[in-house]
Amino acid sequence: MTPLLKGDDAIALPGMRVKSAPEEVLSLPLLVDPDYEVKDGSVIYLTADKQGATTVQNTAAGFVGIVVKHGVIDSYKKGDVVPVMVKGKIWAPVTTAITDLATVVGANETGQLAATTTAVEGLRFAGPSVGSQNLTKIELLGA
């Protein structure tokens, strides 16, 4: 049997929770056809009416959280209920390895976190990146 995780990748999986207190995970319906594949570790926003989740960056409703690893679902589509961490710590892939934890956390158009000059409010890097996917502990501060 081949192990799922090897070497530096044996640390974590995208969307895996880092046990922390306090922690809050919401179940939100994905109300809009996603602009990118919504999978474990993806960035999720609230719809303008704040009734569900979307992949569209929305300044009126804003960022809500990161998709939590839950079972064997590869990706979510419109109508699915998505587990979204809004407070706590979670592993998520970033576009480029993070070594400086003071770097500003942002998100790109594909739902992946990145170091940027335009911050996503309520997020900060909680640890340096590891493994081939640049998995990084992200702390969600909650609303």
Secondary structure elements and their pairing?
Elements: E1 17-18, E2 24-29, E3 43-46, E4 53-54, E5 63-67, E6 81-93, E7 105-107, E8 113-115, E9 123-125, E10 135-141
Antiparallel strand pairs: 1-6, 2-6, 3-4, 3-5, 5-6, 6-10, 7-8, 9-10
Describe this structure in words.
The protein is mostly beta strands and 143 residues long. The strands form 2 sheets. Strands 1, 2, 3, 4, 5, 6, 9 and 10 form an 8-stranded antiparallel sheet that branches. The model has no long low-confidence stretch (mean pLDDT 85). It is built from no helices and 10 strands. The N and C termini lie far apart (44 Å).
The fraction of residues in strands falls at 25-35%
Count the DSSP helices.
0
Order of helices and strands: EEEEEEEEEE
Number of strands: 10
- Give the helix level as a range of percent: under 10%
Give the overall average pLDDT. Answer: 85
Distance between the termini: 44 Å
Overall SS class? mainly beta
The Cα radius of gyration reads: 14 Å
- Poorly predicted runs are none
Overall geometry comes to globular
Largest sheet: 8 strands, antiparallel
